[in-house]
Write a structure and sequence with these properties.
This protein is an alpha+beta fold and 347 residues long. A hairpin with a 7-residue loop joins strand 1 and strand 2. The chain has 2 domains: 105 residues, Phosphorylase Kinase, domain 1 (2-Layer Sandwich); 235 residues, Aminoglycoside 3'-phosphotransferase, Chain: A, domain 2 (Alpha-Beta Complex). The strands form 3 sheets. The chain has a 5-stranded antiparallel beta sheet, with helices on one face.
C-alpha cells in the first residue's frame, strides 16, 4: 500500500522524516493494521525487512482527552527498560509540518493477540496455554510492583480515589444512556449505592492498564508474552481494580456469556482463575480479602459499558450490520448478575 491508499499520513513526508529518528532503508511498504480503538495504525516494512509501527488518532473531531498518542508513547517509553514487555518506543512527533496531528513510531513485535477461541486453537497448543496464563498474570504483577516515579510516570494521573471516580463515571454513563437504550435496571442504582459505601482503602497508586487481557497481549507460540498493547486508557490507580478486571475476563468453561460466545481462555489447557489469583497474590503480596468487591465493581463497570454501546446502536449512531443486538442486551443483564452475586459474597 503506497501513497494515496494511506489515510491520515502524507507518505513522502513521513518517509523523509523517518531517517532522522531511526535507521530505515527506502522504499517502505505501508499496511493498515486492524483494531487499536479506531486509531490509524500502520505497519511499515522497509527495503531490508525492518518493520515499524506508526500510530495516530483517527481523523475528524475528537473529544478533548481521547486518542492521546503522547500518553501511550510516554508509558511505553517509561516501561521499556523494565520487565513489562512493550514495543520499543522509537519517536513521538507533534510537528504539524510532518503530520496534521501528533503520532508516534514504535518497533514491531512478533506474536498473536488472543481475541477468541478460534485464534487460540490455531496458535497455542495446550502446554503453551498454561504457560500463557502464568506469564499473563506475572506481567500484570510486575506492572503493579513498579513505583510510577521510578519510571517517570508519577504525573500520569491522580492515583487516589480511583474506584470512587470510576463508579461516578460509569454510573453517569448508565444514566445518560437510559433514554437511547430504552432500558433501565434497578440493580444498577442499588449496586452503585452499595459499592460506593464499601470502597476499600487504596494502597499506593500504580500504573493500571485499564483493559489488560489476552486480546491486548501478543503471545509467542510457546506461550511467552512478547508485548502488552493499547495503553491508551492507562492511568494511575488501584492495582487490585486492574487485576480484578482481568480476572473477570479470564473466562472458564461454563461461565455465562458476558465476554462473548467464543472467549479465548475457556479452551482446555489454561490455568483457572483460582491459580491466577494465587499466583498474583504470591508475586505482589497483595491482600486479596476484598477481591470480590473489586470483581463486583468491574462487572458493574462492564454492564455500564455494554449499556452505552447498546444505546449507541439503538440511537443509530453505529451500524448494526452483523451485530447480535439481543445477545448484546443479554450480556448487560449477565454482567449485573455477576456484580450482584459477588457483592453478596463480599458482604
Amino acid at each position: 500500500m503506497k501513497g494515496a491508499a494511506v489515510t491520515g499520513f502524507d507518505v513522502p513526508v513521513i518517509e523523509a522524516w523517518l531517517p532522522s529518528v531511526t535507521e530505515v532503508t527506502t522504499p517502505i511498504a505501508w499496511e493498515r493494521l486492524p483494531g487499536g480503538h479506531s486509531n490509524l495504525t500502520y505497519l511499515l516494512c522497509d527495503a531490508v525487512g525492518r518493520e515499524l509501527v506508526v500510530r495516530r488518532p483517527p481523523q475528524g473531531v475528537l473529544l478533548p482527552k481521547a486518542h492521546d498518542m503522547w500518553r501511550e508513547y510516554r508509558i511505553i517509553d517509561g516501561l521499556w527498560p523494565t520487565a513489562v514487555p512493550v514495543a520499543e518506543p522509537i519517536a513521538f512527533c507533534d510537528d504539524r509540518a510532518i503530520c496534521e496531528t501528533h503520532f508516534y513510531v514504535m518497533g514491531k513485535v512478533e506474536g498473536e493477540a488472543l481475541y477468541d477461541g478460534k485464534v487460540v486453537s490455531t496458535w497455542l497448543d495446550e502446554s503453551a496455554r498454561w504457560r500463557a496464563g502464568e506469564v499473563f498474570v506475572d506481567v500484570l504483577a510486575e506492572l503493579h510492583s513498579i513505583d510510577p516515579a521510578d519510571v517517570g510516570l508519577a504525573e500520569l494521573g491522580r492515583p487516589d480515589g480511583y474506584v470512587a471516580r470510576q463508579l461516578k463515571t460509569w454510573y453517569g454513563s448508565w444514566n445518560a444512556s437510559i433514554g437511547y437504550a430504552q432500558h433501565d435496571d434497578p440493580r444498577v442504582h442499588e449496586l452503585h449505592a452499595l459499592l460506593s459505601s464499601r470502597i476499600p482503602e487504596q494502597g499506593p497508586g500504580r500504573v493500571v492498564h485499564g483493559d489488560y487481557g489476552p486480546h491486548n497481549s501478543l503471545f509467542s507460540q510457546s506461550g511467552e508474552l512478547m508485548a502488552v498493547l493499547d495503553w491508551e486508557i492507562a492511568t494511575l490507580g488501584d492495582p487490585l481494580a486492574d487485576f480484578a478486571y482481568s480476572i473477570n475476563a479470564w473466562t472458564e468453561p461454563g461461565d455465562p456469556g458476558v465476554y462473548g460466545s467464543d472467549p479465548p481462555t475457556a479452551l482446555p489447557g489454561f490455568p483457572g482463575r483460582g491459580e491466577l489469583i494465587e499466583r498474583y497474590a504470591m508475586a505482589t503480596g497483595a491482600d486479596m480479602s476484598q477481591l470480590n468487591f473489586y470483581r463486583s465493581f468491574n462487572s458493574f463497570k462492564v454492564a455500564c459499558i455494554l449499556h452505552g454501546v447498546y444505546a449507541r446502536y439503538r440511537a443509530g449512531q453505529k451500524s448494526t450490520e452483523g451485530v447480535d443486538l439481543p445477545m448484546l442486551f443479554a450480556r448487560i443483564g449477565l454482567s449485573l448478575d455477576s456484580a450482584a452475586a459477588m457483592a453478596a459474597d463480599q458482604g
